[in-house]
Amino acid sequence: MKQVVCKIDELGPGEMKPAQLGPIRVVVIRAMDGTLHGLAAKCLHQGGPLERGRLYDHTVASSDVGEYVMDSDREILKCPWHGYEYDIRTGQTVFDETRCLQTFTVREEGDEITVELGVPGAAGQAGSARASA
Question: CA of 114: how far to CAs of 21, 29, 43, in Å?
Fold first, then answer.
């Protein structure tokens, strides 16, 4: 099953678009590096609408007390209801990597972005396809 989400130029880096894949709500995200990711849009905690969440860079504690540094390898989607945080590349929660959202294959096809059921990572990273120039 495949669904067109939008035109390529309608989803810039750091932006999200909601989609419906059969009965499943999906959020499609273009990371700051241009990769595309698809996640189930229902928070694992209490079903919050992740398509209304916020994207941000992940920070980690440094060796200095009270100091945090950016983790450039992770972009995070934060649930708008209670703050659950998910790695957009894997769907894993930040606090417990054994808890994971369903991920979907997202691709650029012609001038459109599509999302589909299937094995994520067929084009590289889990749930993503590298954006073409």
Answer: 10, 11, 22
Q: Looking at beta carbons, which pairs linking 2-8 to residues 24 or more positions away fall under 8 Å? A: 2/114, 2/115, 2/116, 2/117, 3/114, 3/115, 3/116, 4/112, 4/113, 4/114, 5/106, 5/112, 5/113, 5/114, 5/115, 6/112, 6/113, 7/111, 7/112, 7/113, 8/108, 8/111, 8/112, 8/113
Can you tell me the distance from the alpha carbon of 5 to that of 30, in angstroms, rounded to the nearest whole number? 12
Count of residues making up the chain: 133
Determine whether 34 is exposed, middle or buried from the number of CB atoms within 10 Å of its CB (0-12, 13-18, 19+). Answer: middle
Domains located in the chain, CATH noted: 2-129 (2.102.10.10)
Q: Is the pLDDT of residue 44 over 90?
A: yes
Q: Give this prediction's pTM.
A: 0.80
105 or 117, higher pLDDT? 105
